[in-house]
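Dear U.,

For the methods section draft, I wanted the exact inputs and outputs in one place so we can describe them consistently. I've listed the two proteins in the order they'll appear in the manuscript figures. Please don't edit the token lines directly; just add comments below if something needs changing.

First protein:
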Amino acid sequence: MLKTTTVVVGAGHTGLAMSRCLADRSIDHVVLERGEVAHSWRTQRWDSLRLLTPNWMTRLPGFAYGGEDPDGYLTASETAQLIADYAKDSAAPVRANTTVVSVRPVERGYVVQTDQDTWHARTVVSASGGSAVPHVPALRDGLPAGITSVTPADYRNPGELPDGGVLVVGASASGVQIAEELYRSGRPVTLAVGEHLRLPRTYRGKDILWWMDASGLLDERYNEIGDLPRARRLPSMQLVGSPDRRTVDLNALRRLGVRLVGRLAGIRDGVAQFSGSLANMGALADLKLGRLLDTFDAWAAEAAVDGLGAPERFAATEIPVPARLALDLRRGEIQTVVWATGFRPDLSWLDAPVFDRKGRIGHDGGVTASPGLYLLGMPFLRRRKSSFIDGAADDAADVADHLARYVASARGADHG
């Protein structure tokens, strides 16, 4: 059995950030990765995908973007290459093509079983993140035979889908991007809309992420939030990282020709049924956007920030009247359904008493109830920016500090 102080599961940006923080603290460790470094960026992204965050926000421990396009947005392949280069430059002890089969607590640590070998580690960090597998609702089983069903992890480009109309379920970042691309490819597109976070790509001449970063919003900590469970469940921001920095919201999609319907509530006898809450969802998103822009304007005035455009407000979301409540999927109009309904972590390999009755893992800022077991990459893990590449550095440093204290105390107990 191989031995180390810490096993890090996953060699994406969060796992590599953790590796760098552990190395800085002289903690011996290994990073286990089921594929190659940045595996999900290489295998589970569509062709046109770009990061939602501008390049200047691509920051990791010991690394900051220094290229010629700080206001651009990296493609998926560029992101994968950047992460691979980061692993090489930081000399991370990655064992690629090694799948973790199980992790279980034992005396003085954990046994980590892989398809290659077995490790004993005092501590384990799950850095596989909160977006490991697509979440598809059970109502997918009601789709009529012959309709193609894909997720954003499967989707690559319009040319791989059958001819005909597409129903995109979900209007967060993935949903609006894919809906726009499919419509521009010449396909009729229907977008089922639930709760969403409406944002302009730019505001007063600056990227909306600049406002969130500069104002301190992204650094808001998990223990400062009134309703943390809800904050962790919020959908991703309705943004597209395009070179022309365009805003793709429901109004833009409707003007383009995308048909908007309410949240997909069920499929009965081949008929898709949509909620009548579309107008309310649009109004709620508009209200939250207005409040956010008010907060930014107040901060800019108090901080006396120069070089900004004048405050502006955006037209209310236009909702089709009457709202369509049903669509017969048996008539051939829809040939494909894209389930842009979010992602979930995959911790099926973890055999530790840290899950609730619904199978969700509990943690306090990445620290689980099982001593020496940690998480990284989850939504709002320790800060609002935890889901971004830019959030990995601070989160990894905090978790590494806790881990280092735990290791020191455990070793003291061993020799006490």
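Second protein (the one for the lower panel):
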Amino acid sequence: MNPMAGTLYIVSTPIGNLEDITLRALRVLKEVDEIAAEDTRHSSRLLNHYGIAKPLISYWGEKEKVKSEEVLAKLLSGLSIALISDAGTPGISDPGGVLIGRAIEEGIDIVPVPGPSALVAAISISGLPIREFSFIGFLPPRRSQRLKALTDLSTEKRTLIFYEAPHRILDTVEEMYEVFGERKAALVKEITKIHEEALRGKLSDVIRMLAETTIAGEYVILVEGRRSETLSFDEALEEVRTLMKKGKGRKEAVKVVAEQYGMSKNELYERSLGE
């Protein structure tokens, strides 16, 4: 460690409800010399609410790499700094990783101040298996890239967890149904806020409910992993029939079921023709 440097505190902040902040986080924010915020305008609302007045440094978006060096210089001069994002924990699908990496390289003491997390909050009310899970975060913005990423994840047996923005949420869930087939899922939006809502059911159910609700805010999507039990061909054919009734072509339905259960697409397709 660098004995002359200050301390970098990684402080979790509310993801919606301003009451969701720890006493320790408030103390640290009041005691540090400066606060590095993802967006100073956004963070000012929280700080003003709790009467915290400290110099703010913005490291939003494209500024992160340059601003990280500025913050690093302050730390090396002996100042203590709290790193916060707009919501939740810095570095988890949020900026902050660049500064944390550089601070580690320079031997600066880094102290976590844990708190709210959309990921953990959504898991706790999902109703899905959570003994093991894989956190993916945001999928790529382009459809072709999303489909490839989802296909790569289609054999994962652990519960999958994603973040998604409102303008892509319906497309993303429909693509999950296209690639994963009929799996249990939970979709949680506006966690800790006034319009908090959880949609649970099979992916097709979630798509239907999503189409009937107001789309707004940030979303957490949880999808069960690939089921490990072996399906008989009769059961697989029943799933193919179900998908075809919902509008999928035979080849597409066969592909979804075969990939989900590790079956031969050719054999399943030939068997389905005799239905």
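Candidate sentences for the figure legend, describing the second protein: The chain has eleven helices and ten strands. Residues 119-223 form a domain with the Methyltransferase, Cobalt-precorrin-4 Transmethylase; Domain 2 fold (CATH 3.30.950.10).

Thanks,
Y.
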